[in-house]
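Why predict the complex rather than its parts? Because the way molecules touch one another can change local conformation, and only a joint prediction can capture that. The input here totals 225 residues.
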Amino acid sequence: NAGVTQTPKFRVLKTGQSMTLLCAQDMNHEYMYWYRQDPGMGLRLIHYSVGEGTTAKGEVPDGYNVSRLKKQNFLLGLESAAPSQTSVYFCASSRDGSGIRELFFGEGSRLTVL
Amino acid sequence: SQQGEEDPQALSIQEGENATMNCSYKTSINNLQWYRQNSGRGLVHLILIRSNEREKHSGRLRVTLDTSKKSSSLLITASRAADTASYFCATDRGAGNMLTFGGGTRLMVKP
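Output of the joint prediction:
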């Protein structure tokens, strides 16, 4: 039982390049989230999904797009990477969005934009 | 803006001592959760306390919640070197709202 798996774990991009981060969960969770973690800023929500085929903006969505074509997968895309997007990205999932929400996190994807 | 703010930002103690971390928040909540993050790893859920609870225990963890002061504390008793990690509080304002994380407390437990 892998839980939440993120790929790739590390990536270096040049400004203007595009890339996609993949998140996969095997817990049949409805909700999935993408966060970014920067020093001293804690975790900030980028986008989230409340179910297959749905996505919504979080606190810092600009410069990112997401897709949830399958329930188990949540993709985060950067269309034109900028140095300000250098960060550690975490995917998380939860059973649902009501009642008690315990988030399960992946191990993170460290992105550097030069 | 962050809903939860942890205090202190960093804490260094000796093995066997107790560690106390505090979290303050701004608006009413449904529940408050604490997560742990080891260096270079993802966050792991530790404990949840509902808004109608005042204290909760789990092993060496003790969490308190004071909704009148909008604050929570996490106490780790008899700390071990393996407790070295960052600890985050997350506030849950209920359906329709997403969890909001604070900036975290970096705990170092010296052997």
